[in-house]
Amino acid sequence: MRRLVLFIFFVCYAATGLTVVRQDEIGVVRRCGAVLAEPWGPGLHWGFPWGIDRIDRVKTGQTRVLTIGARDNEAAPLTAAPNPETDDFLTGDLNVVTARAIVQYRVSDPVKYLFTARSCELILKAAAESALTRTLTASGVDDVLTTGRGEIAEETRRAIQERADRHGLGVSIRAVRLGRVAPPTPVAPAFADAARARSDRRQMITRSEEYRDRARADARGRAREIADRAAGRYDSLVQNARGEADRFTLVLAESKKNVEATRRRIYLETLAELFPRFRRKVIVAPGEELDLGLFAEEGNMSSSPTNVLPTNDNDRSVPTPSDRGASTP
Predict the structure, then answer these.
(1) First and final CA of the chain: distance in angstroms?
(2) Percent of the chain with pLDDT over 90
(3) Which residues have CB under 8 Å from 275's CB, separation 6+?
(4) Does the reported pTM lie above 0.90?
(5) Which helix (H) or strand (E) holds 34?
(6) How many CB atoms neighbour CB 261 within 10 A?
(7) What letter would DSSP give residue 314?
(8) Helices (H), strands (E): how many in the chain?
(9) Between β-strands 306-310 and 34-35, what pairing exists: parallel, antiparallel or unpaired?
(10) Helix 188-257 and helix 259-274: axis angle, to 10°?
């Protein structure tokens, strides 16, 4: 009977070595106080019984949240009094803001997370507060309250990860999100006025840029229009000049073939051009002499031009201002 009891006790004691590790857990085994090099993954494992092996389960896939800075607005108002030492931060331009940041991290190395420090969360919180303070002191209050929140959060995440790796905490910082960032209550109205002024400034800059873009577009359009007109005028003049040059070249070539005909044509073209300018014309017959004394009385009068035309190419043209004699209109 005693042997049966001892056997049952031994079996039950040995059964304490059976350990189940869940799907989202990693089992860190301490055997006689020494940590095994290889942790246990999810599943059923058989180890030494209780007292020899000790299993610490760590959820490596769980995203843990750490809050630093000011408390949440939805928290109970009497849970904790405002603490300027932890809630308020100094910016790079010597302004004070109340900031709150949420750090999301996961356990990347369960052994380091369990045995590097007595409380990795406290060390990580201190590192996060230090990183946030350093990042805010490198930024101006305008960036902290408006457009620089994303860059500040990313810089804080990198700084926290560097400190965690330096201390060997075995955690991976997934993200840092800036929560409520606001000026202290006594100076909140002044910051609101400054924010409105910044908004008006941005609005005026936007309007100025829109006007600049419109003016540039109009100027470019007018410039293209002037350039197109100039190009068209240039092409027209060039084509006309080339046409005149080609016509002159052809005329020159034809004139060289028959010089007398060319001279007569030029003579007739000149007469056709000058003939309409004169009001009176005198035609002299071939071989007839013209007495210029007939026009001595009106020699000083030149109110209307007169042309004396020969009847053939051998006679000369003599101008006269007189309407008397043999004249034809």
Answers:
(1) 168
(2) 19
(3) 281, 307
(4) no
(5) strand 34-35
(6) 11
(7) T
(8) 8, 11
(9) unpaired
(10) 120
CA distance 329 to 326: 10
pLDDT higher than 80, residue 280: no
Say if strands 26-31 and 34-35 run parallel, antiparallel, or are unpaired.
Answer: antiparallel
| C-alpha span between 196 and 209 (Å, rounded) | 20
105 within 8 A of 124, measured Cβ to Cβ: yes
**50, 96 in Cβ contact below 8 A?**
no
**Which residue type is seen at 19?**
T
- Phi-psi category of 33—alpha, beta or left, where left has phi over 0 and alpha has psi -120 to 50? left
For β-strands 88-90 and 64-69, DSSP reports them as: unpaired
The pair of three-digit structure tokens given for residue 241, joined into one six-digit string? 């000049």
CA distance 108 to 124: 14
Which amino acid makes up residue 55? I
Radius of gyration of the chain (CA): 55
User: What three-state secondary structure class fits 64?
Assistant: strand
Q: Which stretch, 26-40, 86-100, 291-305, has highest mean pLDDT?
A: 86-100
Residues 6+ apart with CB under 8 A from 195: 145, 146
Query: Can you tell me which residue has the tokens 């000790």?
Result: 54
**115: which residues sit within 8 A by CB, 6+ positions away?**
35
- Look at residues 79, 78, 80, 10 and name the one whose alpha carbon lies nearest to residue 50: 10
